[in-house]
Structure formats: C-alpha cells, structure tokens
C-alpha cells in the first residue's frame, strides 16, 4: 500500500526550533517520493476537524513530532480512526518513545516509521482523562505543574524543578483500592505507568510493558527524606520486587505492583498530572487500562 504521511509538528516542544526538523522531513520524503503533508499543532486543537481532514485526504500514517503532551493530544483525538501513529521524539522527556525503544535522532526515528512495524499499544483512563505514557499524583505532579508554568522547557529545566520540588515535598494521605483489597498510604507520590519511565530515561517502573494489559503502580511512601533518593534508585535499578498485596504495606518504603484497574481516594487533593501535563486534581481517581488502544509504529 502506498503510504501518505501527515506530520504534526508541535513548534514549542523541547528546546530546539523545528525549522531543521521540517527541512529534514521535506528532504527525506522528496528523496524517497513519499506523499506527505506537514501541519503544526495548536494549544487547543480541534481534533474533530483534523479527523475529517485525515479521512478526506486519505492519510495512512500520522507522524507526531513532539513530546509526551503532543503524543497524548494527537493519539487521544485520532485513535478512533484506527490509523498508524509514528513518533519523531522532539519533546523534553519523550517518555513514551523512550519506553517503546524509538530512537531520539529524527533520521533514525523516521527509519522506524518507514519499516511500518505496527504494535497494538495499551493506554489508560484516569477518570475521563486519556493517558498513554505515565500519570501521577503528588511530587511528580508538582514538578509537572512548575515546569508547565515556566517559560523554558528541556531537560535542564525539568531537573531544576525536580530538585526544587523535592526539597519542598511532603507526603499526602491516600486510600487505595484494588482487586478487593483496600489500604491507606501516606505517600510522596504515586505513579501510574504504562511506559516504564517519566521521560529522559528516568525509569520508575522497570517491568512496565506497553502491551501487557496491565498498569505498573509505584507508591513512594512516607520515609525520611534523606533516604528517598536511595530508595528511588533501588526502584529505578529494578531491585524492588513486584509487591504481593498480602504482604504488610507498612513494611515497605516503595510499593510496586501491577494491576488492570484501581481506585485512589486523594484525601488531601494532591496535585495530579497526565502524561507530564498538569490537570485539575480530583478527590477520587478511577484508573483503568485500555488494552490495545492504538496502533504505534515501533522498532
Ligand atoms: N502551537 C502551539 N503553541 C504553543 N503551545 C502549544 C502549541 N501546540 C501545542 N502546545 C502545547 O505544548 C505543550 C508541550 O508539548 P510537549 O509535551 O509535546 O512538549 P514537552 O513538554 O517539551 O515534552 P515532554 O512532554 O516529552 O516532556 C502542550 O501542553 C501543548 O498544549
């Protein structure tokens, strides 16, 4: 089948201007005689009009050129079309792309797109918010909020905000219900991961798979703050085993488990983010996997 590529470029993702990327896309597509069109995202994009345009123009592949916020917006708005999604990762964190093994260099990412290897990929809902990478409550959401409010993006600014928020961090009270089991936790943050990481290869859920029909839940419980970096490092390195709910919750600093759904009662209205973008927090979060939610072009 002849392919017809629609490239959707977010002009503000990451730190680089996108002129070079667009020249690359034009050159490589002209060289290889691929039919292609380039458009830009808008902050509040009309996805219904975009869907109509895609159907009318008979695009076969939508290529997202941006970070996780752009990936979320485009996939959520267009997944009902059953179209292939490729990613050229040019965001700040690129957590979904990195989790899927998509190269960070545009030329290499485009080679993956050309190969056309389609993977049916999971996503999930948190209440009515669509998420395909990683969402969370507490400290990491505070980082996402400050990062979004800042004028500068990129890894340096993300790291700076993480350190500032770490020193301010305090635990929040949560009540967690899953698989007929209910427990309380005072936690600095809870990550709900489909991809294995926050982005920038900061792995938080080493066993996460984009295709297993499960979410990886990481609960970083109250502990002396000085001990938190080492506890997280152990989690990142995969030293923490998957948690068995029959064990005593109180014995572990970090709880790591997999489930298809869970409910979190957010007693103190801890901040909340979806795929790295802050959203208004809610007192009850119903989280559910959406297996095989979209078609992604992967290595
Ligand atoms: N044309 C535009 N002008 C301004 N903002 C835009 C435009 N298009 C999209 N946005 C906003 O850009 C934001 C950031 O996009 P994105 O998440 O892709 O980049 P990033 O935050 O740098 O990367 P990552 O999420 O991987 O860390 C999104 O919140 C989106 O609403």
TrEMBL record:
User: What cofactor does this chain's UniProt record say it requires?
Assistant: Mg(2+)
Signal peptide position in this chain? none
Keywords attached to this entry? ATP-binding, Kinase, Lipid biosynthesis, Lipid metabolism, Magnesium, Metal-binding, Nucleotide-binding, Phospholipid biosynthesis, Phospholipid metabolism, Transferase
Which is an annotated Pfam family here? DAGK_cat
DAGKc domain location is 1-129
> What does the record give under GO molecular function?
kinase activity
Annotated membrane-spanning segments are none
Identify the InterPro entries for this entry.
ATP-NAD_kinase_N (IPR017438), Diacylglycerol/lipid_kinase (IPR005218), Diacylglycerol_kinase_cat_dom (IPR001206), Lipid_Phosphate_FormReg (IPR050187), NAD/diacylglycerol_kinase_sf (IPR016064), YegS/DAGK_C (IPR045540)
PANTHER family in alphabetical order: LIPID KINASE YEGS, SPHINGOSINE KINASE
Name of the protein in its database record: Diacylglycerol kinase family lipid kinase
Q: Which organism is it from?
A: Polluticaenibacter yanchengensis
């Amino acid at each position: 089948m002849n392919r017809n590529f629609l490239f959707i470029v977010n002009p503000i993702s990451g730190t680089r201007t996108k002129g070079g990327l667009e020249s690359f896309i034009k050159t490589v597509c002209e060289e290889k005689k691929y039919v292609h069109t380039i458009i830009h995202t808008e902050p509040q994009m009309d996805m219904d009009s975009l869907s109509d345009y895609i159907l009318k123009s008979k695009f076969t592949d939508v290529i997202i050129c941006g970070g996780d916020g752009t990936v979320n917006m485009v996939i959520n708005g267009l997944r009902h079309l059953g179209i292939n999604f490729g990613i050229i990762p040019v965001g700040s964190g690129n957590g979904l792309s990195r989790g899927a093994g998509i190269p960070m260099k545009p030329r290499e990412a485009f080679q993956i797109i050309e190969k056309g290897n389609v993977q049916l990929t999971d996503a999930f809902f948190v209440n009515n918010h669509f998420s395909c990478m990683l969402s969370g409550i507490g400290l990491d959401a505070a980082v996402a909020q400050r990062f979004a409010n800042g004028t500068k993006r990129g890894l340096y600014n993300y790291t700076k905000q993480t350190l500032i928020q770490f020193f301010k961090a305090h635990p929040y009270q949560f009540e967690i219900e899953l698989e007929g089991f209910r427990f309380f936790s005072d936690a600095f943050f809870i990550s709900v991961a489909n991809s294995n990481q926050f982005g920038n290869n900061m792995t938080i859920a080493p066993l996460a798979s984009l295709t297993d029909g499960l979410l990886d839940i990481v609960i970083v419980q109250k502990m002396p703050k000085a001990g938190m970096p080492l506890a997280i490092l152990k989690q990142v390195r995969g030293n923490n085993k998957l948690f068995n709910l029959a064990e005593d919750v109180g014995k572990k600093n970090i709880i790591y488990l997999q489930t298809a759904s869970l409910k979190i009662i957010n007693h103190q209205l801890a901040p909340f983010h979806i795929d790295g973008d802050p959203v208004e927090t809610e007192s009850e979060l119903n989280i559910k996997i959406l297996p095989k939610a979209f078609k992604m072009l992967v290595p």
